[in-house]
Design a protein that fits this description.
13 strands, UDP-N-acetylmuramoyl-L-alanine:D-glutamate ligase, 9-stranded mixed beta sheet, about 35% helix
Length: about 300
């Protein structure tokens, strides 16, 4: 099958997790255990998911001139991702890192420094334009600077390239940016926050999706966890059921869904078909621990989808 070409611009960060009995108070040293270091960054995760789902992925980000940056480049080589638009920091910034402390109750405290990711600029997007013109769509998240996200969205609109935005982690979005979105894929909390509502607002998801659609977004794809997705556009106002699995780790499920959904759209599938494909991939991902480690391959996702539809 011919591989479709899509672009992803986003972040790369190394996640470092350590478990202790309790969180340290100022000046205290706490013994820890089960240290784990792994690839992270929503953009990078979504690029890997898209590549494993069968797309030719062009990825853009900025990493440091350090061993973590070397690790990122090795990952993209292993996953056969075109990293020609991944550059190393010219300002001496480190690769992004996330430090995660977990106590014995399973609660966590997280400190993130996106560092070199913030250096990826509108100028870098402009340099990617020849590559973007060869792609079926551009996917972004909100771990890049908002200036870069908005510039990329406007550039896609000008060039007629579909622009998909996964609005995570939440940040206020301008009306202009929302109007540039061909596809917006918020979860239930992000959808409400984008509208200026309380994150626990109890209005029906159908009403929330309709309110987002009225902001000028062409296609609202609101993820509902195990309950699937809600689709709202000019022709559709519907919920697509999710896949029921025994979840062990939901970390990265949203990134897997988004990557798989965008690949299916690039291949010409309908939005409901693309959502079902994304649901299958994400459903498989939550049955394993880790993020990169849990992202399934194309054949596994297609096999799961067939079982869902039989």
């Amino acid at each position: 099958m011919k591989k479709e070409r899509i672009a992803v611009i986003g972040s790369y960060a190394v996640g470092m997790t350590i478990v202790g009995d309790h969180f340290p108070i100022p000046g205290e040293t706490v013994p820890g255990h089960d240290f784990l270091m792994c690839h992270g960054g929503k953009g990078s995760n979504q690029a890997v998911a898209a590549a494993r789902m069968g797309a030719e992925v062009v990825y853009g980000t900025c990493v440091g001139k350090d061993s973590f940056g070397d690790g990122a480049m090795k990952l993209y080589e292993e996953e056969q991702i075109d990293a020609g638009a991944v550059r190393r920091s010219e300002k001496g910034l480190s690769t992004g890192v996330g430090l995660i402390y977990v106590n014995k109750e399973g609660e966590n405290e997280i400190v993130i420094d996106f560092a070199a990711n913030n250096e990826f600029s509108p100028e870098d997007v402009e340099r990617m334009v020849p590559r973007l013109k060869e792609c079926k769509l551009l996917l972004m998240q909100l771990e890049s600077s908002m200036e870069t996200v908005e510039y990329a969205a406007k550039t896609c609109k000008k060039l007629g390239i579909p622009f998909a935005l996964n609005p995570a982690p939440f940040s206020p979005l301008s009306e202009e940016l929302l109007g540039c979105c061909t596809y917006l894929t918020p979860n239930q909390t992000e959808a409400r926050l984008i509208l200026g509502l309380d994150s626990k607002d109890d209005r029906p998801d159908a009403e929330i999706a309709a309110m987002l659609y009225e902001k000028g977004i062409q296609n609202v794809i609101m993820t509902l966890g195990g309950d699937g997705c809600y689709i709202k556009n000019s022709q559709m106002d519907m919920q697509v059921p999710g896949i029921r699995v025994d979840a062990v780790d939901t970390t990265g499920a949203g990134d897997t869904f988004t990557g798989a959904f965008c690949v299916a759209i690039a291949e010409g599938k309908s939005i409901p078909e693309a959502v079902r494909f994304g649901n299958a991939a994400a459903g498989l991902a939550v049955t394993k621990y880790g993020v990169i480690e849990s992202i399934p391959g194309r054949e596994e996702a297609e096999s799961c989808l067939k079982k869902m539809e039989s």
